[in-house]
């Protein structure tokens, strides 16, 4: 938890410093649902794929809805990219809607987004993609 908090602070610092030099610093808002049927869904998109430019600032507005199970700490889902955990892509989600500011990785690639909270039926397939393209 402390590690996550630290990386969140670092991200915030990075966002602030980038914003100061770039001028156009508003993160792009992406609305998504971690749904009670244990799927990720993007509002306004047909497929569960987040597309971003390298280093793009993103504001994930995530609504989490409890499935049939939840974690002991009350988390109903999570949103994790294992390869980017140290860059803040490691969110525990609790019921309700919350904003998370993140930065897309600098390396163009396809990243697997997973839920790591045992949320019930469908959990093993609770995945989506982050595709970073120049
Ligand atoms: Cu899950």
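^ structure tokens above, recovered residues below v
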């Amino acid at each position: 938890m402390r590690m996550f908090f630290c990386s969140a602070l670092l991200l915030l610092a990075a966002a602030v410093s980038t914003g100061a030099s770039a001028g156009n610093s508003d993160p792009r808002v992406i609305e998504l649902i971690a749904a009670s049927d244990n799927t990720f869904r993007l509002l306004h998109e047909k497929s569960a794929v987040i597309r971003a430019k390298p280093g793009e600032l993103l504001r994930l507005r995530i609504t989490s809805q409890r499935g049939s199970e939840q974690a002991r700490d009350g988390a109903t889902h999570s949103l994790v990219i294992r390869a980017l955990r140290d860059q803040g892509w490691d969110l525990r989600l609790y019921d309700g809607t919350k904003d998370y500011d993140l930065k897309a990785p600098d390396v163009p690639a396809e990243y697997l987004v997973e839920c790591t909270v045992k949320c019930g039926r469908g959990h093993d397939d609770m995945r989506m993609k982050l595709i970073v393209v120049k």
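Confidence is low (pLDDT under 50) at residues 15-22.
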